[in-house]
Amino acid sequence: MYQYNPKSMVAEEFINHEEILETLKYADENKDNLELVDSLLEKAKNLKGLTHREASVLLACDDKERVAKMYDLAEQIKKDFYGNRIVMFAPLYLSNYCVNGCLYCPYHLKNKHIPRKKLTQEEVKKEVIALQDMGHKRLAIEAGEDPVNNPIEYILDCIKTIYSIKHKNGAIRRVNVNIAATTVENYRKLKEAGIGTYILFQETYDKEAYEYLHPTGPKHNYAYHTEAMDRAMEGGIDDVGIGVLFGLDKYRYEFAGLLMHAEHLEAVHGVGPHTISVPRVKRADDIDPNEFDNSLSDEMFCKLAALIRICVPYTGMIISTRETPEVREKIIRLGVSQISGGSRTSVGGYAEEERPHDTEQFDVSDNRTLDEVVNWLMKSGYIPSFCTACYREGRTGDRFMALCKSGQIQNCCHPNALMTLKEYLVDYASPETKRIGDELIEREIENIGKDAIKGQVREQLQKIENGTRDLYF
Ligand code: SAM
Fold first, then answer.
1. Residue 200 CA to its chain's centroid (Å)
2. What is the residue with the minimal CA distance to atom 14 of ligand 1?
3. Index of the ligand 1 atom closest to the CA of residue 105
4. 472 and 419 in contact (C-beta within 8 Å)?
5. What separation in Å is there between the alpha carbon of 213 and the centre of ligand 1?
């Protein structure tokens, strides 16, 4: 039997089944222990996070007053670490060729009727131009796992193409990568190609469920998948993004596993996950989410997000267009720091006039354009940010975390958010969005603490108005 050890490099020791079962038992026994719950909420106010055991007690607690306090605290922590900024990104699907048999994904090998498509470099260029013309600066590239059709060399070629395109005032300044678990050598190549975050969702932390849901293909190997982030870090990638595909297995189990994964990365590498994603399984081509009986209510989904914010306060949290505008509105307030906008989840989808559905990975629930999302965020009091400065300035991994944990990240993030929003407003926004945005920037400049910085930001904004691009602190 495996022993729980967060410092171990063996999947079943740092994500330990018995430890999770013990944790859930402890949570059940203590969920009505309001003294303990109050002490945990007090402890969380120190912004040092909570352990998976403590967090699981909060998740199990259903005392209305305490749950309201959890939401308030999540909102406060979000403000302390991330202010009112929301970073924008878009996914870019490169290829839906895949040799795996994932039961929840329409790209699975046995799906013979979905058209298979892999972008040529010329097509990548078209997609990137379309994304730049929307105003995007940050992408997450996505591909199925297929060593013949999508080898690492193909992914590297695509990254090179993406970074090379400068269309009008556009540029993609950060490429995050969401591809299957791979070798240290390949992670090193991705690092050398200048990627931002390496993202890999665990899907489920429960080994038995994992093996059932991934019956065939290389992804079947639970240990290889679960240990991928350690290999990525060994390959020199500083920023890794983890996540669970909620709705596949029991959410309380997944939540404990997710926090144990974060604790493991912190214990071994001295730096936790750069981001945590909270996707939920969606209807897609031959996939019916109702076949998975662990779906999660919107209410519990929001509570989970709030608790991730409380328990891992320094980590960015990502929500995609899998969620409706209503859920996105609620969850952003509780701790999400990054959202996608104007997304298309089909291979080659951006270059098409109409949203194509034939090669889609999942149904999108938020169909608004990027301009509509930016407009909506600003009306709700947020600053949409297109900033990519941290990673380009070498503020990655433990350097980023140290700055974030000390609260200092705000000093550059807030001005950078305003300057990149200004670029968006000048180059891409509709007249109404531009008007709202310019007013927002005027108001937000006043929230910059230091007069000297205020002056500098005003100067930079003027330069952007006059045509200079890519200014940042
Ligand atoms: N192929 C890579 C892998 O296996 O990790 C990553 C790319 S895959 C395109 C990105 C993610 O989409 C998967 O990790 C999974 O969590 C999610 N996904 C797959 N099918 C989905 C569905 N029906 N609804 C929502 N998300 C889904």
1. 10
2. 201
3. 20
4. yes
5. 12
Per-residue pLDDT band at 410 (split at 50, 70, 90) = low
Q: Does ligand 1 come within 6 angstroms of the Cβ of 199?
A: no
pTM of the model as a whole: 0.97
DSSP state of 175: E
User: Which stretches of 280-388 are DSSP H helices?
Assistant: 298-311, 325-333, 370-379
Q: Which of 43-57, 278-292, 347-361 has the highest mean pLDDT?
A: 43-57
Q: How many A from CA of 212 to the centre of ligand 1? A: 16
Cα(231)–Cα(233) distance, integer angstroms: 5
Q: What number does the ligand 1 atom closest to the CA of 200 have?
A: 5
Q: Cite the DSSP H helix spans in 184-250.
A: 184-192, 207-213, 222-226, 228-234
Whole-number percent of the chain with pLDDT over 90? 86
Cα 1 to Cα 24: distance, rounded to the nearest angstrom: 19
User: Cβ(242) to ligand 1 under 6 A?
Assistant: no
| Contact status, residue 426 vs residue 462, Cβ threshold 8 Å | no
CA distance 89 to 174: 9
H or E element in which residue 123 lies:
helix 121-134
Q: Give the tens place of pLDDT for each residue, 188-219.
A: 999 999 999 999 999 999 999 999 999 999 99
CA dihedral 296, 301, 304, 305 (to 10 degrees): 150
Q: Return the beta strands (E) in 359-458 as ranges.
A: 383-385
Confidence bin at 35 (pLDDT 50/70/90): very high
